[in-house]
Design brief:
This protein is of the alpha/beta class. Helices cover about 40% and strands about 15% of the residues. It binds flavin mononucleotide. Flavin mononucleotide binds next to helix 1 and strand 3.
Length: about 190
Amino acid sequence: MKITTILGSLNKNGSCAHALNIVHDELQKSDNIELVIIDPNDYTLPFPGQSIPNSDENKLQHLLSDVAGIIISTPEYHGSFSSIVKLIIENLGFPSMLAGKPVSLLGVAEGSIGAIKSLEQLRSVCSHVGSIVLPGPVSIPNVHSAFDKDGNCLDGKVEQRLRTLANEMIKYAEKHIVPEHALEEQVRENL
Ligand SMILES: Cc1cc2nc3c(=O)[nH]c(=O)nc-3n(C[C@H](O)[C@H](O)[C@H](O)COP(=O)(O)O)c2cc1C
């Protein structure tokens, strides 16, 4: 069973990557899971209406075509989720490759209220494109004190929430076989 994670930041060694690495560690404990990591640094993606030679949107869509679940991470930037996450979503097709698939959300923020705004907005967009957004998003406030420079988590509760996010996704994906066409049609009707 394939589970994909999406790094929502171009900062490979940032807090978002640190948090996602713990999710990866937990997912990799399961023999059942093939982990597919999407790092936006590895893809050339156009904005809608833009044409870029050799862009990677088809490669990205192909990667997501047969995954059982997707975990999207994002830093909070200016009260919202990152523009690179939005750009990835813009490149997932229309209807979206997210349609009908379970999606879990993870947000990090420097501020003390956490990534609440980002996660609410991202939830709304993911629902709009037809994904099944799982309950229990993880928001990490004061993220710069939650990890050391090597990415070790300094807060046991945060680490536990990240591991739970991974395990809840596995549990959901194992139980649900999503009918391929049903939700695509539903998304078309809602557009
Ligand atoms: C452009 C920019 C905007 C930011 N806006 C917010 C914000 O609105 N709220 C907040 O709590 N943190 C904000 N931050 C802090 C980031 O959420 C924090 O530094 C996070 O660790 C960035 O993750 P990354 O390094 O993995 O990209 C902002 C950071 C940047 C660079």
